[in-house]
C-alpha cells in the first residue's frame, strides 16, 4: 500500500488535532468537518479499504469503535447520539485509501439528510 496523508499524520510529518493515540489507533479532528463534531479514528496499521480487513484486523476495527464511543462520551454527545461511517472505494465515497471511521455529532443527523419531523395538528 502506498503512503497516504494518514500515514504521514501517524508519523507526525503532518500536524493534526489529535484527540487520542495509543499503539493501535489514532483519532483526530477532521479538517473539513461536516458536523459540529467530526473526527476520524484510524488504525496505525495501514489497511486500504473495508474489503481488505482480514481476520487478523477484526480486533483493531472493533477497538476503533470503542475509541469513537469513548471520545463521544468525553465530548458530551454520546447520550444524544452520533453517526459512525466508514466509506469503501470510489463509489462509496472513499478518498483516502487507509480505512478510517468518521464520527459525526453535535446536530440531528436524520436520514436522509433533508428529513424533517412531521407536525401533527
Automatic annotation (TrEMBL):
Gene3D superfamilies: HIT-like (3.30.428.10)
Domain HIT: residue ranges: 5-114
InterPro entries referenced in this protein's UniProt entry, alphabetically: Histidine_triad_CS (IPR019808), Histidine_triad_HIT (IPR001310), HIT-like (IPR011146), HIT-like_sf (IPR036265)
Histidine triad motif (motif): residue ranges: 98-102
SUPFAM superfamilies associated with the record: HIT-like
A UniProt-annotated Pfam family: HIT
Protein name: Histidine triad nucleotide-binding protein
Organism, as annotated: Glaciecola siphonariae
Amino acid at each position: 500500500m502506498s503512503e497516504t496523508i494518514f500515514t504521514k499524520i501517524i508519523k507526525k510529518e503532518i500536524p493534526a488535532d489529535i484527540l487520542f493515540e495509543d499503539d493501535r489507533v489514532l483519532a483526530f479532528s477532521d479538517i473539513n468537518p461536516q458536523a459540529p463534531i467530526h473526527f476520524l479514528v484510524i488504525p496505525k496499521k495501514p489497511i486500504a479499504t473495508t474489503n481488505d480487513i482480514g481476520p487478523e484486523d477484526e480486533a483493531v476495527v472493533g477497538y476503533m469503535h470503542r475509541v469513537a464511543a469513548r471520545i463521544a462520551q468525553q465530548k458530551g454527545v454520546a447520550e444524544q447520539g452520533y453517526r459512525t461511517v466508514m466509506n469503501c472505494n470510489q463509489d462509496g465515497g472513499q478518498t483516502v485509501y487507509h480505512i478510517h471511521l468518521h464520527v459525526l455529532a453535535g446536530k440531528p443527523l436524520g436520514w436522509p439528510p433533508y428529513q424533517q419531523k412531521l407536525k401533527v395538528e
